[in-house]
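Our collaborator T.R. sent over the components below with a one-line note: 'Predict the complex.' Nothing else. No constraints on interfaces, no templates requested, no preferences about which chain binds where. So this is a plain run: every listed entity goes in together, and whatever single assembly comes back becomes the starting point for the next discussion.
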Amino acid sequence: MSTVFIALQANEETRPIIEAIEIDNPLAVVNRQPAMVKIDAPNRLVIRKETIEEQIGREFDLQELHINLITLGGNVTEDDDSLTLSWAE
Amino acid sequence: MDMKVAKKKLGLKEKYRLMTRDLGWEPTYRAKDEVFPYVNYEGIKVHDWDKWEDPFRLTMDSYWKYQAEKERKFYAIIDAHAQNNGHLNITDARYLSALKIFLQAISPGEYAAHKGFARVGREFPGVGTQVACQMQAIDEIRHAQTQIHALSNYNKYYDGFHAFADARDRIWYTSVARSFFDDAMSAGPFEFMIAIGFSFEYVLTNLLFVPFMSGAAYNGDMATVTFGFSAQSDEARHMTLGLECIKFMLEQDPDNLPIVQGWLDKWFWRGFRVLGLVSTMMDYMLPKRVMSWREAWEIYGVENGGALFKDLARYGVRPPKGWDDAEKAIDHMSHQFMLGLYQWSFGTSFHSWIPSDEDMDWLSAKYPTTFDKYYRPRWDHIRKLAVAGTPFKNFGLAKLCQTCQLPVVFTEPDDATMSCHRETEYKGEKYHFCSDGCQHIFDNEPEKYVQAWLPMPSLFQELNGDIGAWMNWVGLRDGEDNGDYSGSRDQRNFDQWRGMATSNT
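Returned assembly:
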């Protein structure tokens, strides 16, 4: 098992995104550090457009993530509906 | 009434195809080898450039949109910083030393990376690769500019910021970062991708931009947090590009594996040595600390780097050769380097200091196996000398490693009481190294590294060893920019201005 992670700036725009990630990834661990939030998960973490849209009540383009993204670890797979981070099992 | 029909939005994959792959063409009146002359000599075999995938599928139109948004956020905070006495809101002016090192050594590296990506974007034949390199070239120049712009606010009030460009070219500790980038930029396009995309982005920037920037937030420096996170938001894309490049080479041909492994070995160690500067910034230069260098290494080196190499094992890649030596150095490097900076502080365009009792207690808690045993006694001794009015100053010039250009200040991996030093003789000349890693790198490409510009020999070649002339030449004002923090103009000004800012007298 390896840890994948994503770190986002801690601000109003990312609060609902982090909530969405927690909903979609029950194994994710959220670490709050000064000015940033780092989310770790075992092997795989998925970020879903639909869940984020439910949280923020508007349409969301997954590429908007780039604005508040700090860093990530894992292989990235992205399509219109989701962004997945994973390490080979 | 006409019904308004919403235009069908292109899906991500379709848009990426149209706006990257579809922009390429086959040359007809010149052979492809003539158009892309540098892509073969490193020995990397590529059979199908279309197999290159950008996982983010970012296209230029979206790129401009999101980058503009990042810039607006950045300048909103920079303006607020300048309008609200941001230069007085930091925890302590000692913190500025970390920013000075950053500006002198790292920001010019961003500019060098910009030039490098502009070049390799031209040299790679694949369209997906060209577009990704073009974006990264623009990112890197943005980083250099936003960093210089953010820190220019401190230059109005504090010493040591004014001559960063001369410092970058001429002063001794900055040549560590400079030689890293010069080495990368004078390599072929594939090696450049490993050097910057893998070593700098994947190994270095997480450690530099993430815990250190979080530390900047902790120290009240919103300007630096903002350029740091704004830059790092691009780095996530760069790391992905670097990882993609490694996977692409390994998937294209099995013959590429030994070449790639050799570069991983080399550039891991090159990157690790540049991190010597960062370890000291984290452990000694942040008045309020989020985590120690050791703790940051556990997260971003051991855990994340380890995960990466476990993942790449499916291609036959093993962890880099210097990995074990790096692990052995973690609990020592920041202390050894700070002791070096302190004793040579006549020649640094930033201040250093003797850690306080409170700082030393923190260091022994974070480094229980090494600090009290090896480093506290040395700091205690140095403090005794300072109190007696005979401070420990070294006006000799440090012996530099021919590869990484750091002073040879480190110890043997398995014996922290023994200074580590290696030597190679090449064509009748003796060359010195700080470690096995740096010696191996030299031995593999001696003709490259015998040409290295080293700041200490240059002091004699160009200025006959005249230290005063050297200070003028590197833009260092003696008694203002250098020396101990205690008693410095930065300390006096900060204390006085902060007093004025919080009272009416």
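Summary for T.R.: The longest strand of chain B covers residues 415-419.
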